[in-house]
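In response to a reviewer's request, we include the raw inputs and outputs for one of the modeled complexes. The two entities were modeled together in a single run.
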Amino acid sequence: MARKKLVVQKFGGSSVANVERILNVARRVVETKKKGNNVVVVVSALGDTTDELIELAAKITDSPSERELDMLMSTGEQISISLLAMAIHKLGIGAISLTGQQVGIATDKVHTKARIEKIETKRIEKELQKHGIVIVAGFQGITPENEITTLGRGGSDMSAVGLAIALKADVCEIFTDVEGIYTTDPRIVKNARKLKQICYEEMLEMASMGAQVMQARSIEAASKFNIPLHVRSSFSEKEGTIISKEVKSMEGVVVRGVTLNKSEAKITICKVPNKPGLAAKIFETLGKANINVDMIIQNISETGATDISFTVIKDDLNKTLKVAKDLCEKIKAAGVISDADVAKISVVGIGMRSHSGVAAKMFKTLADEKINIEMISTSEIKISCVVGKAGAEKAVKALHKAFGLHKAS
Amino acid sequence: MARKKLVVQKFGGSSVANVERILNVARRVVETKKKGNNVVVVVSALGDTTDELIELAAKITDSPSERELDMLMSTGEQISISLLAMAIHKLGIGAISLTGQQVGIATDKVHTKARIEKIETKRIEKELQKHGIVIVAGFQGITPENEITTLGRGGSDMSAVGLAIALKADVCEIFTDVEGIYTTDPRIVKNARKLKQICYEEMLEMASMGAQVMQARSIEAASKFNIPLHVRSSFSEKEGTIISKEVKSMEGVVVRGVTLNKSEAKITICKVPNKPGLAAKIFETLGKANINVDMIIQNISETGATDISFTVIKDDLNKTLKVAKDLCEKIKAAGVISDADVAKISVVGIGMRSHSGVAAKMFKTLADEKINIEMISTSEIKISCVVGKAGAEKAVKALHKAFGLHKAS
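The model returned the following structure tokens for the whole complex.
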């Protein structure tokens, strides 16, 4: 007998923000089951519950133990799974909710940002056989010592993908408040198009650069195990965007999307002496201070000194400046300057690998719009430029048009 | 080396209703530890959290699955234990919170009113050795199938007593919003006195009849294993009331307290044919309908028929009347009458066992106050009278005085 299709469905916090939406999710899940599938549902905490719990902890202490924070935060998902189970029962359909502990979502011991190491399938498989629908608390797991862990921001995505991998699901549907992945932000470019299909690598570049629909780590995991993802809206029946490995139909499309990221700031350490190991020292120091650096540019000049520029998340700017100024003295550089009024614009597309001229076209488009490029960084499937924030949206519009993204592909 | 004294402290929902109170509880716990004790703390959910969660479920469905209700409700205590742990850490003291599952509080499978079957002590003992303070989620346990259960209203008392028994604690302190057990309700009788010490049997009679400070089941359990209970206020340093087995100092005091219970209604099935087995049939039927009957009075008259009266919780009155009227037809009784405007007044004291005349004194006191007695029921250590609600407080005052309860004993 053929095995039933198994669909993993993940609903984020906004999809279960209130009773009405929970009932809506219940209907979606039941429809999927009625189409002949088994369904594993992963839910996040209701609306802003996680933030509210963190605020509650903040009222008690400035520095809560991460172990106790996990104990606290994991209640959010436990509430949503039980309510969703009740909502599905109300429709006359069997379903059971399970915590991370009950499933056996084994993680490492790094509280508040644990990584999944293994997912037991025995209990879920038993319950799927019995009910056809199993609701699993996202964002949470359990250490070998039976301690509750959480998976960090966006961790429910990882729970969903992890379950899809462990259970060999046919598809992992990510329900969110957008209808899919667009060629660019529709709020900026009116004729931005929803993409039918993109590949994992493209999604990774899009997700990590502003189109933050899904946690990057979970896209990587899906890619590694070749689990198709379907990003779609929980408020509409429309098909969303399928994320899968590169397929034939993707050939010929050079640029898939344009992304805009206004959340980074640029920092330059001026006139760093041209001695081996200084760049390493700078980024090692920043790493130790837990500062994530995105782009890095270094240009050696003829004077025997060099300017080193890099970008960091704006929230980290003050901390970074402090570290950089300390460093500046130690390595005898001339000084530190920073600019928070910048934006990073990227064009992304797996087709770039076999097409030259994308960079030239991008730079020319920006030049035609009189937009000055401050930094450039490239990868196999992405070209990013840092420009002044003022011209950023104009740049996105121009690039979207220049690469023909408004036309159906 | 002598073992450290082990104190189990239970804090109810009102003791942890807000951040300030949680910090207060943290100080109480730390003080107890600093006196050289190990401390196991049992906490209920913050304030009215449990009720709020039940209301949330009620918005989803009229008939939530009890298994899912337990999944939902158990989050309340998980929130309070983590916050209390953080509050204790803030004072610079080590502590760890544990869920019912992490402790290993094994219960039966009766969701929403499970009974504790066994408590594992290994994890707690390990953590006590390490931190000296362990915070345990009250009200919750786990079945052999790893399903979350809750212990019913007041279940945190049972958690505390159960832990005290399993860990062979020296005392189990029940922190609440009253300062102890009083000779009667101080809101009715101004010179009501706080009792220094009472025995389990007296506490049981007091608790089940209106002085609802502690769940009866947990008092029984403490009695069985001879765990001293200390009922005291979480808002005051004063000693409360010690509940222990009967001790010498209790001798000579005949009546320990007067209790008033206005929450019951009286029902009479009139002219029940005098046939064997009919009384059994009546109370069997009520039992099957999940109606708890308190007092039962039957007086066989000469006519070959008898009136059977009993009391039930007022909330159950409508349901009871329906069942009673059905029964009435079946057994060919004359009819059913009910009275919700009644109150039950009881005098309680273990000394009654060896002193006669208590009943006579009670009846005479009520007669002197011109209060009509509608029902009487007696046990070894308690005499209860049902009277009209209007005269109830007057009756309590008169009895409190007549038995000399205002005088120190």
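As requested, we also summarize the result in words. The longest helix of chain B spans residues 66-90. The first strand of chain B starts at residue 5 and ends at 11.
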